[in-house]
Write a structure and sequence with these properties.
heterodimer; A: about 290 residues; alpha/beta; 7-stranded mixed β-sheet; two-stranded antiparallel ribbon; 9 strands; globular; B: about 325 residues; 6-stranded mixed β-sheet; binds thiamine diphosphate; binds magnesium ion
């Protein structure tokens, strides 16, 4: 059990350290364009993707996808970093940048909601090939206002496709709280289309993992779609320095930081050890790219 | 002679027979209905499981086809009326064409077929030639065979040759037309590009140089047999050049014909201004500056709504008469 927690903690911390480094490099002028970090939401990426088989399952991700990517393909961390730095050695030759990532079975794009029908088509391909594979797509609560997601839910239900729609309900979209974006709760959406839904605490990595594992086991048997709503909180800015939420609100949510939750459960010694390992991996990476 | 529709059906039949990657999707495409214009008639019966009739969700089904294309299939998606392609634009422009170009080593062999054009009284939202909106989109090929081409051959060529998205535009009025071949007056040649696509070269004379080069594509071909025959009677020598790939246009194939004639008319059914004809004219000016006898004349439909009422519709759409008038105007330059 503890081994699993350590594993989750290390994965989440690597994502956190990687992204905090990005924010620092941004302010130092190494990066251009934009980066959206998933600081505070690492348990969503780690819990879901740990439950997949990356050899056969596919992931479609969104603008906030570094965490999804690193969890899916940690071995391509340098390629991701190079991509974000705008180097030709990046996984997309520097063409894609932060929001447009691809290796093997992983695809991300910067158009909110637009990957959901694509993931539905991928799920159809999985089903037609009888591969027993799952197509996962990540969206935010804000994206859940995009109409094409509902066209996709209808088709996933109609054709009974192995599509797992994961909604990271971090309660905000850029600057707008979800209460100003939605007239009804997101949990009620997919069931109306015939797609069963489960909602869990997205900051609790074990809950996310166990729920995802259970859903995926069911989906490999019945090949049918599911929706998983993860309640979480964006601890960082939308992209860089663009955050007007109150410090009280932020402080309250710091308490629920998914990393802190695990630090309480692990021994001090292990935490320190993992922190050092992650720091070293990131500083080795920076050295490799000649960044101090 | 077979019709445009029959040849297209035959092309799809051959593809489904020979290539297991092919999947047809679209609204109302399965039997007994077989598609709003019957292009897929009979196919769902002959190829069970290979045709998927979809919900009425043009954006969503385009995305689904993109997903299939990313994962080893060659989806051929029918959008019932070309006017509805506005709904597919995000999936075409921000998804399909981006995946094949911004990711490394990803192909997205998506084919979207759609009927365009007016002349049947379908009114403002079912008669347009909206391929215009997609012209110039990077990594998108737009192909629109005329009835001097063979659309069944073309669709097979696309499957064989392309790994990126293609818009395949069919003019509604061509479906019932017979494919055109040479006769005593009109001589048809098909010139092949390196990629194997055809440009139809049609002459209404046998000896000498052309008086004028008429460049067009797709559905306007329906006017040409009669128009070119009538002009032959008046001893006006026309060379008509119709590429089936309209974007990126095979400009190097067009230039020598335009240069030989020194007078050029470009016709398209879409609305006036900022369209295909204007774009081709711009490219020709760049290559043929000072080699032409007079300005290039562009003929299009009017820039307005396409009315349902027959007489009003005729007034705004391009016609044989409007093309003929343009030809006469250009020939009247001294
Ligand atoms: C179609 C589209 N509209 C708007 C944007 C600009 N945009 C990028 S992220 C974002 C907020 C997204 O909120 P949400 O879906 O909740 O995801 P989160 O950022 O909270 O992870 C917006 C408006 C976009 N990228 N795509
Ligand atoms: Mg959000």
């Amino acid at each position: 059990m503890s081994a699993q927690l350590e594993f989750f903690y290390e994965k989440m911390l690597l994502i956190r350290t990687f992204e905090e480094t990005l924010l620092r490099l941004f302010s130092q002028g190494y990066l251009r364009g934009t980066v959206h970090t998933c600081i505070g939401q690492e348990a969503c990426a780690v819990g879901i993707i740990a439950a997949l088989n990356s050899e056969q399952d596919t992931v479609c991700s969104n603008h906030r996808g570094h965490g999804h990517f690193l969890m899916f393909s940690e071995q391509n961390m340098y390629g991701l970093f190079a991509e974000i730095l705008g180097l030709e050695s990046g996984i997309c030759n520097g063409k894609g940048g932060s929001q447009h990532l691809h290796v093997t079975n992983f695809y991300s794009n910067g158009i909110l909601g637009g990957m959901v029908p694509v993931a539905t088509g991928i799920a159809l391909a999985h089903k037609l090939k009888k591969e027993n594979a799952i197509s996962v797509v990540f969206v935010g609560d804000g994206a859940m206002a995009e109409g094409i997601i509902y066209e996709s839910l209808n088709m996933a239900a109609l054709w009974q496709l192995p599509l797992l729609l994961v909604v990271e309900q971090n309660q905000i979209a850029q600057s707008t709280p979800w209460t100003l974006e939605h007239g009804s709760i997101i949990e009620d959406r997919s069931p109306a289309f015939g797609v069963p839904r489960i909602a869990v605490d997205g900051n609790h990595v074990e809950s996310v993992y166990n729920t995802a594992k259970e859903l995926i086991t069911q989906m490999r048997i019945d090949n049918a779609p599911r929706c998983l709503v993860l309640h979480t909180y964006r601890l960082g800015p939308h992209s860089k320095g663009d955050d007007q939420r109150s410090s009280t609100e932020l402080a309250m949510n710091q308490e629920k930081d998914p990393l802190k939750q695990l630090e309480i459960l692990l021994t001090q010694q292990i935490v320190t050890h993992i922190k050092m390992r992650c720091q070293k991996r990131i500083s080795d990476m920076l050295t490799h790219f000649l960044i101090s | 002679m077979p019709t445009y529709l029959k040849e297209l059906q035959q092309g799809l039949f051959t593809l489904l027979t020979n290539d297991q990657r092919i999947i047809l999707l679209g609204e109302d495409i399965i039997d007994p209905y077989g598609g709003a214009f019957k292009v897929t008639a009979g196919l769902s019966t002959q190829f069970p499981g290979r045709l998927i009739t979809t919900p009425i969700a043009e954006a969503g089904i385009t995305g689904v086809a993109v997903g299939l294309a990313l994962r080893g299939y060659v989806p051929i998606l029918e959008i019932m009326f070309g006017d509805f392609l506005t709904l597919c634009a995000d999936q075409i422009i921000n998804h399909a064409t981006k995946f094949s170009s911004m990711y490394s080593a990803v192909s997205c062999p998506l084919i979207i077929r759609s009927p365009m054009g007016g002349g049947r009284g379908y009114g403002p939202t079912h008669s347009q030639s909206l391929e215009k909106l997609f012209l110039g989109t990077p990594h998108l090929k737009i192909i629109s065979p005329s009835n001097f081409h063979n659309p069944g051959r073309t669709i097979q060529q696309i499957v064989q040759y392309e790994s990126n998205p293609v818009l395949f535009i069919e003019h509604k009025l061509l479906y019932s037309e017979f494919l055109q071949v040479s006769n005593e007056i009109i001589h048809v040649n098909l010139q092949s590009s390196e990629e194997g696509y055809h440009t139809a070269i049609i002459k209404n004379y046998t000896v000498g140089n052309p008086d004028l080069c008429l460049i067009s594509y797709g559905g306007t071909s329906r006017f040409l047999p009669k128009l070119l025959t009538d002009l032959a009677v008046e001893e006006v020598r026309i060379i008509a050049v119709l590429p089936e790939v309209i974007d990126p246009a095979p400009i190097d194939i067009l230039v020598p014909y335009a240069a030989a004639a020194r007078r050029v008319v470009i016709a398209e059914e879409s609305t006036a201004d900022f369209g295909w004809a204007v774009g081709i004219a711009g490219m020709l000016y760049e290559k043929l500056w000072k080699q032409l006898d007079c300005p290039i004349k562009v003929v299009t439909s009017e820039r307005c709504v396409i009315p349902t009422a027959s007489e009003q519709e005729k007034e705004v759409l391009i016609s044989a008469l409007k093309i003929e008038n343009a030809i006469m105007e250009v020939l009247s330059w001294l």
